[in-house]
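quick one, 326 residues, struct below
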Amino acid sequence: MKVCMFGAGAIGGYVGALLHRQGVEVSLIARGPHLAAMQDNGLTVHSKGERFVAHPQCSDNPADLGPQDYIFITLKAHALAGVIDDLGSLLKDDTAIVGAQNGLPWWYFYRHGGAYDGRRLSSVDPNGRLWDGLGPERMLGAVVWPSAELAGPGVVEHSYGDRIPLGEPDGSRSDRALTLSKALIAAGIKSPVRPNIRTEIWMKLWGNLSFNPLSVLTMATLQDLATDPGTRRVTAVMMTEAKTAAEKLGIKFPIDVGRRIDMAADVGEHKTSMLQDLERGRTMEIEPLLGVVAEVGRMIGVPMPTIDIVYDLVVKRAKEAGCYAG
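---
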């Protein structure tokens, strides 16, 4: 099995290193000092009190690597359209692409069934470049729950989480999903094949669509947002609006809003990815986490007044900080 981590920062490096340690032929696409450090010294991973060094093939040129069985794209959603042409040399007829992005994926309504089957989402796929350029048939759904950061070039700090459930858009237990699941489980990642990966997508998005933008507006940690009465109340309203839309699309949430907020509080004094991006002057994932939810609400006729207000506020904040992709 050949697996490429395209955009091998913290998460791509972490997952790639675990797979490589289990004997999978892994390659990492990266750039800059991080790439140079991995090429010189390997990729060092700190996780759960353990330290190990992996030495997978590393490059900034996909043409060096040849066709792959699986490609994990671990870039942020707003960067996907910019790498379509770079993926060509990695693809063969049956290459599966695993999208490791937060939020609703651009292929969400591919083989969804029902009234919205095949709908495209302009907020995360303007002009349909991803749908037409990559093809939704290649996509294998995944939800990445682990949290990791680059402690420095060539060094990944894994802080928590060990689940990456997989799922086909049509809910089938395909050979490609089962094969990758087996490899990830052997590497130490809980990776079941779910019959409805969209439920897992919404479960993670439920927290991201509320905690991420609110953290940017308040500069608060997850624990603060989940325990302060005011921000907890706003979070609950945003989650409830999103829940109404998701249920109209057939999603059945296994827990209620209060429990989902408590789960975030249990994480502790953690800064959301969007707040980290603000502090570091990086582009924020506003559209895949919030804008797309508002788009789906309009599409299916579910009002989202609180989400719309928070979206406008966080876009303004991002523009002022130079962190808005548009």
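The chain has a mean pLDDT of 95.
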